[in-house]
């Protein structure tokens, strides 16, 4: 049981870490919150009934961890990535284009960034994300569309 | 809605640190800590129960005292009352007594709820279950004699009637009453 759980978690480790890294722009915070997500998932695993996929369930937990952390200590938003050596390290093998994309993403508001990270970075279906956010799929599609538009504008600058 | 989107998938290809192993360890530590807290809380509840819930009323102490002696023939007449010594208990440094005070049936007082007032000498504390059952904690009598004053039911106040209960004569071991 413990080994299975560990294997399942490991399969999602990178995505969960990427989720926090792209929302926070800081590797240390991302690592801390990813770890907290899996700690809570251990506790919650007994209550997991399989109503959704493990991935959706895990990201539901991750999102709560993210929101609680922001409320509790006001984690800073990602700012100018040039001032973030941690980020540069994380993208050590990345191209200039990738760094520009990360910078453009980081310049967006929280809601836009989250929509883009969930759908365009982590490849969730919009309807799944709408469910996690507790909004209608239509509302989320509009939000996603606007976020993509803003990202293009930010990237083009 | 046109959806000329930028390809962001490369941003998900990050070099993730090992967090699952650390999370599992942290979960086990939390579980362990929580278990310790639960055990500590249960122990605290047990301690409180032992302190607060333990039988500290006199009646319980006398009934539960080791070597409590039950007597059947220690009945004394005082006015229109009959005073029976039911139990003698060694309470450590003190002695516990259970007295039953009943109106003498032939005296016309019936068996109503009214019993006499019973005062025991050298008393430390006393407890009455009802009009008839009296529990006393007394200083150990040097000579084994316990003085009892009965007031009411034929023993007019303030003097009342005095009886002496000779524990030695009743066969109560000295280890119980000394």
Query: What is the mean predicted local confidence, pLDDT of chain B?
Result: 85
Which strand-content bin applies to the residues of chain B? 25-35%
The end-to-end span of chain B amounts to 101 Å
For the record, give the distance between the C-alpha atoms at the N and C termini of chain A, rounded to a whole number: 51 Å
CATH fold-type name of chain A: Butyryl-CoA Dehydrogenase, subunit A, domain 3
Mean pLDDT of chain A: 85
Low-confidence stretches of chain A: 79-83
How many runs of DSSP E, i.e. beta strands of chain B? Answer: 9
SS field, number of helical segments of chain A? 8
CATH class of chain A: Mainly Alpha
Question: What's the CATH H-level homologous superfamily of chain A?
Answer: PhyR, sigma-like (SL) domain
Low-confidence parts of chain B lasting 5 or more residues at pLDDT below 50? Answer: none
CATH class of the largest domain in chain B: Mainly Beta
Largest interface summary: A-B, 45 and 26 residues
Task: Please explain how this structure is put together.
The complex is a heterodimer of chains A (157) and B (178). Chain A has 157 residues and is mainly alpha-helical. Chain A has a single domain, classed as PhyR, sigma-like (SL) domain (Butyryl-CoA Dehydrogenase, subunit A, domain 3). Chain A is 75% helix and 0% strand. The radius of gyration of chain A is 16 Å and the shape is globular. The N and C termini of chain A lie far apart (51 Å). About 3% of the residues of chain A have low confidence. Chain B is built from three helices and nine strands; from the N terminus they run ααβββββββββα. In chain B, strands 1, 2, 3, 4, 6 and 7 form a six-stranded antiparallel β-sheet that branches. Helices cover 25% and strands 30% of the residues of chain B. The longest helix of chain B has 33 residues. Chain B starts with 19 loop residues before the first helix and ends with a helix. Chain B is rod-shaped. Classes of the chains: A mainly alpha (157), B alpha+beta (178). At the A-B interface, helix 1, helix 2, helix 5, helix 6 and helix 8 of A face helix 1 of B.
């Amino acid at each position: 049981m413990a080994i299975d759980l560990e294997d399942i978690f490991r399969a999602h480790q990178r995505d969960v870490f990427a989720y926090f890294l792209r929302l926070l722009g800081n590797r240390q915070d991302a690592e801390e919150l990813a770890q907290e997500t899996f700690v809570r998932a251990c506790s919650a695993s007994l209550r997991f009934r399989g109503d959704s996929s493990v991935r959706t369930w895990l990201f539901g937990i991750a999102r709560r961890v993210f929101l609680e952390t922001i409320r509790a200590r006001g984690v800073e938003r990602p700012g100018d990535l040039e001032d973030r050596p941690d980020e540069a390290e994380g993208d050590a093998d990345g191209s200039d284009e990738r760094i520009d994309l990360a910078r453009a993403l980081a310049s967006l508001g929280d809601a836009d960034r989250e929509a883009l990270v969930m759908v365009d970075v982590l490849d969730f279906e919009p309807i799944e994300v709408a469910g996690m956010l507790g909004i209608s799929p239509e509302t989320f599609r509009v939000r996603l569309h606007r976020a993509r538009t803003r990202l293009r504008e930010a990237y083009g600058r | 809605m046109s959806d000329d989107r930028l390809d962001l998938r490369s941003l998900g290809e990050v070099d993730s640190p090992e967090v699952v192993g650390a999370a599992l360890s942290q979960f086990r530590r939390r579980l362990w800590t929580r278990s310790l807290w639960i055990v500590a809380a249960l122990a605290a509840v047990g301690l409180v129960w032992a302190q607060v819930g333990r039988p500290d009323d006199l009646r319980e102490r006398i009934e539960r005292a080791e070597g409590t002696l039950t007597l059947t023939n220690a009945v004394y007449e005082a006015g229109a009352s009959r005073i029976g010594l039911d139990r003698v208990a060694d309470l450590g440094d003190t002695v516990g007594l259970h007295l039953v005070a009943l109106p003498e049936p032939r005296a016309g007082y019936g068996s109503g709820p009214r019993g006499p007032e019973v005062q025991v000498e050298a008393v430390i504390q006393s407890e009455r279950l009802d009009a008839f059952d009296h529990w006393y904690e007394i200083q150990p009598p040097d000579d084994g004699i316990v003085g009892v004053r009965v007031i009411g039911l034929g023993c007019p106040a303030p003097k009342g009637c005095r009886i002496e209960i000779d524990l030695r004569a009743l066969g109560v071991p000295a280890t119980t009453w000394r």
